[in-house]
């Protein structure tokens, strides 16, 4: 019984590591525009401190009017919604990304960002 429990825990740990790896790999699509470092804006704003922040408020980045007026406070749910289809959540946002349709990759990316942006 103990070996079965140990095997089960190892499988869960491996699945978590796999999701983290998929999230990090999926984030590679984002690094052309976004950084995880505080104060490091590029084509897109830094994502440092993302969760819990209000959309359109990163210092030193020029956001579109619709993003600034959106009033969104980023959490995992609305971040997933935005990454699935940015124009649907914030019409006329300047982010030139059509969306992430692979649900496993989307979930993994949001999970990765929840820890990597702290």
From TrEMBL:
Transmembrane segments: none
One Pfam entry name: Cytochrom_C
Chain ranges of the Cytochrome c domain: 18-117
Signal peptide: 1-19
Entry keywords, A to Z: Electron transport, Heme, Iron, Metal-binding, Signal, Transport
Name the record gives this protein: C-type cytochrome
Species: Duganella levis
């Amino acid at each position: 019984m103990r070996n079965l429990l140990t095997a089960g825990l190892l499988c869960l740990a491996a699945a978590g590591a796999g999701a983290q790896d998929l999230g990090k790999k999926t984030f590679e699509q984002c690094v052309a525009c976004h950084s995880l470092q505080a104060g490091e804006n590029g084509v897109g704003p830094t994502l440092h401190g993302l969760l819990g922040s209000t959309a359109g408020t990163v210092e030193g980045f020029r956001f579109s009017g619709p993003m600034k007026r959106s009033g969104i406070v980023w959490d995992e749910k609305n971040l997933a919604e935005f990454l699935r289809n940015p124009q649907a959540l914030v019409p006329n946002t300047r982010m030139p990304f059509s969306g992430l349709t692979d649900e496993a990759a989307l979930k993994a990316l949001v999970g990765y960002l929840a820890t990597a942006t702290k």
